[in-house]
Design goal:
CATH superfamily of the largest domain: Winged helix-like DNA-binding domain superfamily/Winged helix DNA-binding domain
Number of domains: 2
Order of helices and strands: HHEHHHHE
CATH topology of the largest domain: Arc Repressor Mutant, subunit A
Helix content: 55-70%
CATH class of the largest domain: Mainly Alpha
Number of strands: 2
Strand order of the largest sheet: 1-2
Strand content: 5-15%
Shape: globular
CATH architecture of the largest domain: Orthogonal Bundle
Distance between the termini: 35 Å
């Protein structure tokens, strides 16, 4: 995070007021985080085409549920987790994710599909039925 803020301050003059300042900072921070992930561990990305799923957002009722879902996301393999967070939480599209991670769009979709399948399986196994996963 510190490196991200350092880059923001070093490049503040390059912000051209062509969008939100928050979005510009967010883009720098996300890219810096991804760079750190790449440095610390190689992402294991598998390429095969499958239909993506749509997860309907259900707000957790309390901190325990939030911690439960966060622990499931944290337990995903690196490649799955990065794509899942970028797509479902950060709101990036597959084309943007592919560009950021330097992968194919199909690989991004596949990673998201596999992450969702793993989450769905674990949620069903743990009997947490208030999270719904539906097919597009």
């Amino acid at each position: 995070m510190l490196n991200g803020f350092l880059k923001v301050f070093q490049n503040i003059e390059s912000f051209k007021n062509e969008g939100s300042f928050e979005g510009w900072i967010r883009q720098i921070m996300v890219r810096e985080c991804l760079s750190m992930i790449r440095i610390q561990a190689k992402l294991q990305l598998f390429s095969d085409e499958k239909q993506p799923f749509d997860i309907q957002k259900v707000e957790p009722h309390d901190a325990l549920e939030y911690d439960y879902y966060q622990s499931l996301i944290d337990a995903l393999p690196d490649g799955y987790r990065v794509v899942f967070v970028l797509y479902c939480i950060e709101g990036y599209k597959h084309q943007e994710i592919a560009k950021i991670l330097n992968i194919k769009i199909g690989t991004s979709k596949s990673q998201l599909n596999r992450a969702r399948q793993m989450l769905q399986t674990q949620i069903k196994k743990d009997n947490h039925s208030n999270y719904v996963v539906t097919k597009i």
